[in-house]
């Protein structure tokens, strides 16, 4: 194919969008609506995912020590626990700090319940707060801490707690939410592809007479196909770029607006910076692919004249 | 040059459109194809520009064996054949200029040459001033002249015209016939199917009459021979 013919195909492909104004508009609207819904659900899924991760990361192990453990032993224990591969951070929480924490958790109204338990009267043991890299390995880390305790003849640890049972249920729920998110996004993606390729198919059916005429004049199949191909790709790119801009601008407004409202509920939305690239890549990639795919598939049928 | 030897064409529904047609049409001839509707005239022409394939027999067009032609070679046969239809078959969203130029873009001619030649041909058919119009804004006669311009723009050796005056009034038809004669005079072979008695009788060219899939008459300076 000669360069001037390639240029000609690009020119014709672009011109065809204008020549078939209403049909192009219909295709673009259909792509826009499908991808818009897909984009909204993608952002929803990303947020569910990030919230799940936030909740999961709050899971930690509390290691309560016996009442009579010496300072040196504590340091040794802290080091040993810190050396477990799954563990990211070990924080020592003294009796007094533990009491403070408990008081805080009980809230304003009930805090006097703890009055009179300060200093020597403090019934709480010293403890460690252990955080892990991957929340899913928390049970493993806990059992390793227990193993350290067993290996020590003084048995300095009284109890290892990480919300056994509750944590597993939490993970089941967050996992289910993630899978639902992925399934919905894939489902919408597939639906969008069919919806859009159908619209493009309609525009080409309307033009099969034109294709017949082109063949009569002696146009080769590839000569006929290229402008359609470029037209489809352009329609896909234009409408998916518009969709991306609208979805991301809308979402960034939402993030800004909700920052104050939701921060009180400890919910943090995924920022546009974090989600923008993935959303844009998915929407534009899918839109372009659908445009090309729709026009290529449907034109093949009418080339057999 | 077109040569048919014992050409049969049977459609999938079992109708025999042509039953053993043998004919030879030389360069620069002007041939009228006459006969009742459904006699096989259109099939005869469709075989020439390879819209249909013969069921049996040998067909050679400009040296190509039509029956054995590979599908990807079809466009190259058609580029040497200009086709004109009763219903014009112009691309509705393209301007007059673009419709004619399209046939030249197909053969990958340089833009400068396309422009020059397209305007030249539009001038020949008398539509230079309407080059920017859309087909829908032209009269029937004008649309047919655009389709003729498109058919001749690549200087094909054969023009196949299927009732080109079928939708036109007598005066406009005469203009179209003068144009075809001019093209024939410049060297193209013209094969034209028609039901127009006056045109055939006044021009006195070769007349091939087809009835029921057979050639029943082939006269060098023939007449229409049917009641109009």
From TrEMBL, chain A:
A Pfam family of this chain: FtsX
InterPro entries: ABC3_permease_C, FtsX, FtsX_ECD, FtsX_firmicutes-type
Record keyword Cell division present: yes
Transmembrane parts of this sequence: 21-46, 179-200, 234-255, 276-299
Highest taxon of the lineage: Bacteria
Domain FtsX extracellular: 59-150
GO CC annotations, alphabetized: plasma membrane
Keywords: Cell cycle, Cell division, Cell membrane, Membrane, Transmembrane, Transmembrane helix
GO terms classed as biological process: cell division
Membrane topology classification: Multi-pass membrane protein
Family under the similarity heading: Belongs to the ABC-4 integral membrane protein family. FtsX subfamily.
Protein known as: Cell division protein FtsX
Source organism phylogeny: Bacteria, Bacillati, Bacillota, Bacilli, Bacillales
UniProtKB/TrEMBL annotation, chain B:
TM ranges: none
Record's signal peptide: none
Location in the cell: Cell membrane
Species in which this protein is naturally found: Paenibacillus prosopidis
Cellular component annotations (GO), alphabetically ordered: plasma membrane
Family per record: Belongs to the ABC transporter superfamily.
Keyword Membrane: yes
Keyword Cell membrane: yes
Protein name: Cell division ATP-binding protein FtsE
Membrane topology type: Peripheral membrane protein
Annotated gene: ftsE
């Amino acid at each position: 194919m000669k360069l001037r013919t390639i240029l000609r195909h690009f020119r014709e492909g672009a011109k065809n969008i204008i020549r078939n104004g209403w049909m192009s508009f219909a295709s673009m609207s259909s792509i826009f609506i499908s991808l818009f819904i897909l984009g909204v659900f993608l952002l929803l899924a990303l947020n569910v995912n990030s919230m799940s991760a936030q909740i999961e990361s709050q899971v930690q192990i509390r290691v309560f020590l016996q009442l009579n453990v010496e300072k040196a032993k504590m340091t040794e224990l802290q080091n040993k626990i810190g050396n477990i591969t799954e563990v990211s951070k070990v924080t020592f929480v003294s009796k007094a700090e533990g009491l403070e924490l408990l008081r805080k958790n009980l809230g304003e109204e009930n805090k006097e319940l703890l009055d009179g338990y300060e200093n020597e009267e403090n019934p709480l043991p010293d403890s460690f707060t252990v955080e892990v890299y991957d929340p899913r390995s928390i049970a493993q880390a806990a059992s390793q801490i227990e193993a350290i305790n067993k290996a020590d003849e003084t048995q300095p640890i009284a109890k290892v707690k990480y919300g056994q049972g509750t944590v597993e249920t939490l993970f089941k729920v967050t996992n289910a939410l993630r899978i639902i998110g992925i399934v919905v996004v894939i489902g919408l993606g597939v639906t969008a592809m069919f919806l859009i390729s159908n619209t493009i198919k309609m525009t080409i059916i309307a033009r099969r007479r034109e294709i017949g005429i082109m063949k009569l004049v002696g146009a080769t199949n590839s000569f006929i196909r290229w402008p359609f191909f470029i037209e489809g790709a352009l329609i896909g790119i234009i409408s998916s770029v518009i969709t991306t801009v609208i979805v991301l601008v809308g979402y960034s407004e939402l993030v800004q607006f909700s920052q104050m409202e939701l921060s009180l509920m400890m919910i943090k939305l995924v920022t546009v910076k974090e989600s923008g690239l993935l959303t844009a890549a998915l929407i534009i990639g899918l839109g372009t692919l659908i445009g090309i795919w729709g026009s290529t598939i449907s034109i093949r049928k009418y080339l057999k004249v | 040059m077109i040569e048919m030897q014992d050409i049969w064409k049977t459609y999938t529904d079992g109708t025999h459109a042509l039953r053993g047609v043998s004919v030879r049409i030389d360069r620069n001839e002007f041939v009228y194809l006459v006969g009742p509707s459904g006699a096989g005239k259109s099939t005869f022409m469709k075989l020439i520009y390879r819209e249909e394939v013969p069921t049996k027999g040998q067909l050679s067009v400009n040296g190509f064996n039509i029956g054995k032609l590979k599908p990807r070679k079809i466009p190259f046969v058609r580029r040497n054949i200009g086709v004109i239809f009763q219903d014009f078959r112009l691309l509705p969203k393209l301007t007059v200029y673009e419709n004619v130029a399209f046939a030249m873009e197909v053969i990958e001619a340089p833009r400068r040459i396309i422009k020059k030649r397209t305007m030249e041909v539009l001038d020949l058919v008398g539509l230079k001033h309407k080059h920017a119009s859309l087909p829908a804004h032209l009269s029937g006669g004008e649309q047919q002249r655009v389709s003729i311009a498109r058919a001749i723009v690549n200087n094909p050796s054969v023009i196949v015209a299927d009732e080109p005056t079928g939708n036109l009034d007598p005066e406009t038809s005469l203009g179209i016939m003068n144009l075809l004669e001019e093209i024939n005079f410049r060297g193209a072979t013209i094969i034209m199917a028609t039901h127009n008695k006056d045109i055939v009788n006044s021009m006195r060219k070769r007349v091939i009459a087809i009835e029921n899939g057979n050639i029943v008459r082939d006269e060098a300076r023939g007449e229409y021979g049917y009641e109009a």
